[in-house]
Write a structure and sequence with these properties.
Radius of gyration: 24 Å
CATH superfamily of the largest domain: Dipeptide-binding Protein, Domain 3
Strand content: 15-25%
Number of strands: 17
Oligomer: single chain
CATH architecture of the largest domain: Roll
Number of domains: 3
Distance between the termini: 43 Å
Helix content: 25-40%
CATH class of the largest domain: Alpha Beta
CATH topology of the largest domain: Dipeptide-binding Protein, domain 3
Number of helices: 15
Largest sheet: 11 strands, mixed
C-alpha cells in the first residue's frame, strides 16, 4: 500500500517546479441581526478586512464556479485534502491519514477525530459519504468524479473511497473547492435551500452575516482543528472598482485588497504603509481560434497569426512585466511544465509568407473578441498592432463577459480571448481544453479542435499511474499541439495582493483561494 509519504514526494516535486518555473516577484440581507459591521482600526487587531473585486452570488459550493465566491466558501467548509495556495503542495485537511492501493482504485481514509461543524454536530464518515456521492450528480463536480464509484463506511472515522479506474490526480480532484465536505444531517434537517441561506461547515470561520453586494462578516472559529486565526472577525468587502478599493486601503478602512492590476504597482510603492505581493497565477489567458470556420480551418493561417505576436511586448504592455509567458496552457506549477519548451518564435516575415501560401497575399480582415479587465483588452491592443504589421486588419470587439462566453460556446466567433485555470496544477486541465470530447458547452475546447491522436493520448494520460509514461504521453501531446496550432498561447496572468505593511503571513495566491486564517498582525 502507498502511504502519505507518496504525497510528500508529490508536494516536493510541485514546490520544485514552482521554484524553477516561476518568479514571484447591496441588496437585501439574508439573516437576522445583520447590520453591516464597520471595520475596526487596524491598531485594535481584532478584525481583518479584505476586499475582493466582485460580488458573491452564492455561498453554496454547488451553485457556482466563481473563484471569488469559492474564496469565501472555503473559509466556511473544508475538503479531505487541500492544495496550498502558496506552493501547490497537497496535504491532508479533514483526512488525517490515508492509504492508496497500488492500482489507485481504493483509498482508505481516516478522518480527523473531534472535528465539529459550527452547529456542534460532529464530522463523521456519514458526511463524507453523503457529500462525495452527491457530488457525482453535481455539474460543477463532473470533472472530478469521473470513474468515482462511492464511499464505503468502515466506522465513524474510517472509510474507503472507490473508483472503477485508477487516477493519479484523485487527491487533487477531491481537494477542489466544489468537493468540500458538507453537513449531511444539517442539510437533511433544513434542506438545500435552508443551507444556502445559512451555510455551516468545519472551516476556520463561521458565517455571521451577509449583506449582498456589500460585505460578508465571519467570526473566527476558535476551536478550528488546524489552528484558529489570531483575530476575532473576518470581513469580506466586495468593491469592484479598483481605485475605490485602493483608496479604502490607503485610508486604513480595509487591510487587504486582492487582485489589483499591475498598473497600480507604482502607486502602491510610493506608500510606505502598504506592501505589494505578486506571483504568476495558474490562470491561462489565450486566443481561441474557431478551427471549423474558414479561413481558420487552414493551419497556415493559424500559424501565421500565432508567429506574428510579439509576446515580450505583450508581457510588458498588458502585464506590466509580470505573469509568465507560456507555449501552452500547462502552468509553471505543473509537473509537465518544462523550461526547455520554447515560446512560439516571433517572425513577421515568415508569417506574411504563410498567409500568402494560404491565399492571402494582401492580408485579411478578422475580429477578435475580448472583455474589459482580466488583461484581455490591453493584450488585444498589442495583438491588433502586431497583426497590422503583416497586413491583417483586426477589429477588436469588447464584449460583456457572459455574452462573449456564450458566443464561444456556440462557436459563433472568429477569434476570442479565453481563460482557463489549472486548478489541479497538472497538465490534465490543458489536455481537456484541447480534447474534442470537451467541445463548446461540454468544456473549454471552444476552438472546436479535433485531433484523434491527441484525444487518444489524453485519455491514456488520465489513468496512467507511471509518471514516466505519463510524461511521454504529454510530450507527444505537446508536439501535436505545436504542429496543429489550434489556438494561440498567451500567458499565465499575474496574481496580486496589496496589504497593510504590519500584516504577517501574506502572499499572492496562485488561484485566488486565500487562507485568511494564515494572516496575522
Amino acid at each position: 500500500m502507498k502511504k502519505k509519504r507518496l504525497i510528500s514526494i508529490i508536494a516536493s516535486l510541485l514546490v520544485l517546479s514552482i521554484l524553477t518555473g516561476c518568479a514571484n516577484s447591496g441588496g437585501s440581507n439574508e439573516f437576522e441581526n445583520t447590520e453591516p459591521t464597520s471595520s475596526k482600526s487596524s491598531q485594535e487587531h481584532d478584525t481583518l478586512t479584505v476586499v475582493i473585486p466582485s460580488d458573491v452570488g452564492s455561498l453554496y459550493q454547488w451553485d457556482t464556479d466563481d473563484s471569488w465566491a469559492l474564496n469565501v466558501i472555503c473559509e466556511i467548509v473544508d475538503p479531505l485534502w487541500r492544495i496550498s495556495p502558496v506552493d501547490g503542495s497537497v496535504s491532508g485537511c479533514l483526512a488525517e491519514e490515508w492509504e492508496i492501493s497500488p492500482d489507485y482504485k481504493e483509498c482508505k481514509v481516516k478522518l480527523q477525530e473531534g472535528v465539529k461543524f459550527s452547529n456542534g454536530d460532529p464530522l463523521t464518515t456519514k458526511d463524507v459519504k453523503w457529500t462525495l456521492e452527491e457530488a457525482i450528480n453535481q455539474p460543477w463536480c463532473s470533472r472530478w468524479v469521473a470513474n468515482f464509484e462511492g464511499v464505503e463506511i468502515v466506522d465513524e472515522y474510517n472509510c474507503i473511497l472507490k473508483w472503477s479506474e485508477g487516477d493519479p490526480n484523485f487527491m487533487k480532484y477531491f481537494a477542489q473547492n466544489s468537493m468540500n465536505i458538507l453537513p449531511a444531517d444539517y442539510i437533511a434537517e433544513v434542506g438545500v435551500d435552508g443551507y444556502k441561506q445559512k451555510p455551516i461547515g468545519t472551516g476556520p470561520f463561521i458565517l455571521e452575516s451577509w449583506t449582498r453586494g456589500d460585505r460578508i462578516v465571519l467570526k473566527t472559529n476558535k476551536d478550528y482543528f488546524m489552528g484558529s486565526a489570531s483575530y476575532d472577525t473576518l470581513v469580506i468587502r466586495m468593491i469592484n472598482d479598483a481605485n475605490s478599493a485602493l483608496m479604502a486601503l490607503e485610508a486604513g478602512e480595509v487591510d487587504v485588497v486582492c487582485d489589483l492590476k499591475p498598473t497600480f504597482k507604482d502607486v502602491v510603492a510610493q506608500n510606505e504603509n502598504l506592501r505589494w505581493e505578486e506571483a504568476a497565477s495558474a490562470v491561462f489567458v489565450y486566443i481561441q481560434v474557431q478551427n471549423q470556420k474558414a479561413p481558420f480551418d487552414d493551419v497556415r493561417v493559424r500559424k501565421a497569426l500565432n508567429m506574428a505576436i510579439n509576446r515580450e511586448q505583450l508581457q510588458a504592455v498588458a502585464l506590466g512585466g509580470g505573469g509568465s509567458l507560456a507555449p501552452y496552457g500547462i502552468s509553471p506549477y505543473s509537473p509537465q511544465w518544462s523550461d526547455n519548451d520554447l515560446l512560439p518564435a516571433y517572425d513577421p516575415e515568415a508569417a506574411r509568407k504563410l498567409l500568402a501560401e494560404a491565399g492571402f497575399p494582401n492580408g485579411l480582415d478578422v475580429t477578435l473578441t475580448c472583455r474589459e479587465g482580466d488583461y484581455q483588452k490591453p493584450a488585444s491592443e498589442v495583438v491588433q498592432a502586431n497583426w497590422a504589421d503583416i497586413g491583417v486588419n483586426c477589429k477588436v470587439e469588447v464584449m460583456e463577459r457572459n455574452a462573449q462566453i456564450n458566443d464561444m460556446i456556440a462557436g459563433s466567433y472568429q477569434l476570442g480571448w479565453q481563460q482557463t485555470t489549472d486548478v489541479i496544477l497538472d497538465g490534465s486541465i490543458w489536455g481537456m481544453a484541447n480534447d474534442s470530447h470537451y467541445w463548446g458547452g461540454n468544456g473549454a475546447n471552444r476552438a472546436f479542435y479535433k485531433n484523434e491522436r491527441f484525444d487518444e493520448l489524453n485519455a491514456l494520460q488520465k489513468i496512467e499511474l507511471d509518471p514516466g509514461k505519463r510524461k511521454e504521453y504529454f510530450e507527444e501531446m505537446k508536439q501535436i499541439y505545436w504542429d496543429d496550432c489550434p489556438n494561440m498561447p498567451g500567458f499565465f496572468a499575474p496574481t496580486t495582493c496589496v496589504v497593510n505593511k504590519d500584516l504577517k503571513g501574506t502572499y499572492a495566491a496562485m488561484l485566488n483561494f486565500y487562507r485568511y486564517e494564515w494572516f496575522s498582525w
